[in-house]
Structures are given as C-alpha cells and as structure tokens.
Amino acid sequence: MSKSILGLAIGLFCVTNYVTGQSAIPYNPLKKGQFFFYWGWNREFYSRSTLSIKGADYDLVLHRVRAKDKPTRLSYHNYLQPDRVTIPQTNFRVGYFIRPGLALSLGVDHMKYVMVQDQVVEVNGIVSRPGVYQKTYNGPVQMTSDFLTFEHTDGLNYIHVALEKYKELYHSKTEKCIVNWYYGGGAGVLVPKTNVKFLDYERNDRFHVSGFGLNAQAGMQGVFFKHFVMRLEAKGGYINMPDIILHKKGIEGRGKQRFFFGEAFWSLGATYSLNRKKK
C-alpha cells in the first residue's frame, strides 16, 4: 500500500513538473506589443553633390562638391553632460512591435554636413553683386572661406519612420543575453539649420523643412537582463533638399542639393512590454 502511494506521488510530481516546464514561455523581446527606445552616436559619409545657390544678385551651380561630417571631441562634458547631449552627432528612436518580429519606429538622426573648405570645384553662373567676386563663372574656383562656407552643422536632421524585421541569433538559457539581427527601410523629411557664409550676406539661423530622404538599414541588437538594449547599425540612403534657406530672414537666397549618405552608429536603450497580459 505504501509503495502504491509513493508511486502515485512520484507520478504526480513528474506530471506537474512536465506541465510546468511546457507552460514556461521564454522571454521574447520581439513579440507584438513590445516597446523600445534608444539614444546613440554616429559617424557619416557623403557622396559628392551638385550644389545650386540662387539669390537676388547671384546664381551659381557648384559641381562635385565634397563634404564630411563633424564629430565632437570625445569627453564626458560633450557626450554625457545633460545640457550638451544634443551637440554631438546623435540618434534617437522609439519603436513598437506591430507584429512578432516586425517593428514600426520613429526617429531623428542628428547628422552634420560640412563642405570641405579650400577644395577646388567647377562653378558655373554669375555674381552681379559689386565686389571682388562680381563676374561670370565658367571654370574651377577654390572654395575659400571669404567666398563660401556651407554647413548643416546645427543639424542635418533626418526625421523618419522605419519598418524593421528582426530575427533571433542567440538566446541564453538564463535569458540574461538575447542577440538579434535586423534589417529594414525608412523615409522622412530633412529639417536642417543651415549655416552659410556667402560673400557678405548674413547667415540663416532657422530650422526649415528642406527636403526628403530615403534609407535602408541593418544591424545587430543585444538585449541584456530582459530590458537593457545595445545596438550597432549601418545605414545608407539618399537625401534630396530642393529648398535650403541660405540667408537671414528677409534676404532672398535659396539652395538645393542631393546626395547619398552612409551612416554607422551605436546606441543604448531599453525595451519593455506594453501588453502585460502576455509574457
């Protein structure tokens, strides 16, 4: 009798543990209803572009203009001090998984674009404003600082939405480390504050919707202790800005340009579920 009771108890224990083991659902940071956000820092690369600038007394086209980004010197003061965190080249994004493994996100890439100074480019057009640069242009011209400086350094701000597909690469048994890779694409608008010094005109100091962008991206993401996120991402795309403000308000002057860009960045963030009923 005692053996029968012991056998029944062992059987019930095994069944209970089997059911419990089957019902334990692994943590999934890619499930529907999962929310995430991150903040990071980037570097950019730009193709050559054709830059057109036109005002009341000038109309010029600059061909195959070279540009670079403008990284901020690495220091606690520049990157982590609260009142200066937006000064470096940064990325901010929030997202939501609309389906398992498929996220919709909104973000801002705060890039910086600086025309390489003193380069020689082909220039066509005319300057009728009185001064040493008053003439018709049809040949190479050196971009000296007293002639033209051209920057989107208060932000080549790319505000865009993206759709991202995620796949799991690694899931530790303790669930303290989950690694995913992802790819996707996005589109949005460019809202730069363009800093231009051309001849003796006063520069613009306003944010302005200047054009649009398209991009594709891919990267890897690590989720640690179920909530902390680190990402590494590469992004490439196309920017077209047909309406760039060049001068102070009230002074006529517009520019336009288009180019391709490449971007690499890393970021830190967090993720958690907005649907508490599901594990």
What can you see in these coordinates?
With 279 residues, this protein is mainly β. It has one domain: Porin (Beta Barrel). Helices cover 9% and strands 59% of the residues. The chain contains 2 helices and 14 strands, in the order αββββαββββββββββ. The protein has an 8-stranded antiparallel barrel. Strand 2 and strand 3 form a beta hairpin. It is elongated.
**Strand and helix order:** HEEEEHEEEEEEEEEE
**Average of pLDDT:** 89
* Total E-strand runs: 14
Shape category: elongated
Based on helices, strands and strand pairing, what is the structural class? Answer: mainly beta
Task: Please indicate the count of domains.
Answer: 1
The CATH class, by name, is Mainly Beta
What fold name stands as the CATH topology? Porin
Any low-confidence stretches, pLDDT <50, length ≥5?
1-23
Fraction in helix: under 10%
Tell me the distance between the termini: 43 Å
Assembly level = single chain
Tally of helical segments: 2
Please give the largest β-sheet: 8 strands, antiparallel, barrel
Observed structural traits:
single chain; 279 residues; mainly beta; Porin; 8-stranded antiparallel beta barrel; 2 helices; disordered N terminus
Strands, helices and their partners?
Layout: H1 2-23, E1 34-46, E2 49-55, E3 58-65, E4 67-68, H2 76-79, E5 90-99, E6 102-115, E7 120-127, E8 135-142, E9 148-171, E10 177-190, E11 195-198, E12 211-224, E13 228-245, E14 253-273
Antiparallel strand pairs: 1-5, 1-14, 2-3, 2-14, 3-7, 4-6, 5-6, 6-9, 7-8, 9-10, 9-11, 10-12, 12-13, 13-14
